[in-house]
Amino acid sequence: METKVEQAQDFFKVLRDRHSVRHYDPTVTISQADLQDMLKEATLAPSSANLQPWRFLVITDQALKEKLLPIANHQQQVVDASAVIAILGDLEGYKQAERIYEQAVASGYMDEELKQSFITRITNGYASMSAEKIKNIVLIDGGLIAMQLMLIAKAKGYDTVPMGGFHPEQFKEAFGISERYIPVMLLPVGKASESAHSSPRLAVNDVTFWNKMTEGE
Ligand SMILES: Cc1cc2nc3c(=O)[nH]c(=O)nc-3n(C[C@H](O)[C@H](O)[C@H](O)COP(=O)(O)O)c2cc1C
């Protein structure tokens, strides 16, 4: 019982201590193994039909970070952070359904018949879905994993900043990313060189409606 409370407090500390960091110590490197661990934990995030359409392009090479600088509106954090994780949404992620549900069968969570019916439903569902709807799904799933990744990084003593301030088409072209993928966000990860400040939030009452929506201000 006591342990549970302690864990919860740690979690809330991580939540409160996470701030967008824009100044990084350029001498800090994060090993590929550490980055991989963070990504592994992050992939525990939920996703639509568990299709996990997130893909990561991890940029650690200094020359590539420099190449990213003008594409990211010269935001210096892409050069100074240890790594920039580009979170991409795979518009064809649903094609992994067989592989994913196979694992569910192997783990005993699903039988073969249920697996087949899920796959048929997913395949037919995505085949009749508009491109815009698929894009929305991968953006939502990409946002969920981005948040999870930021908190995991903070829990491990690293800092991050979610970045939408870049040119997605230029980014795709410069990094050889095909039309199959949609850039969701860039996520520099590293160690802050200056402590970041907390930013204001609207009051819960300003953003919450109970049972009935009314016009906000
Ligand atoms: C989708 C998205 C895009 C953002 N793009 C940028 C960006 O390009 N550059 C930047 O410095 N911060 C960016 N931010 C960070 C926000 O400014 C920041 O999250 C917000 O001010 C709240 O501060 P906090 O993250 O420290 O709590 C972005 C945040 C989100 C969620």
UniProtKB/TrEMBL annotation:
Ranges for domain Nitroreductase come to: 15-191
InterPro entries for this protein: Nitroreductase, Nitroreductase-like
Q: Which Pfam families match?
A: Nitroreductase (PF00881)
Gene3D superfamilies noted in UniProt = NADH Oxidase
- TM segment ranges: none
Q: Which UniProt keywords apply?
A: Oxidoreductase
Return the CDD domains for the record: MhqN-like
Task: Please state which protein family the record places this protein in.
Answer: Belongs to the nitroreductase family.
What is the protein named? Nitroreductase family protein
Could you tell me which species this protein originates from?
Paenibacillus apiarius
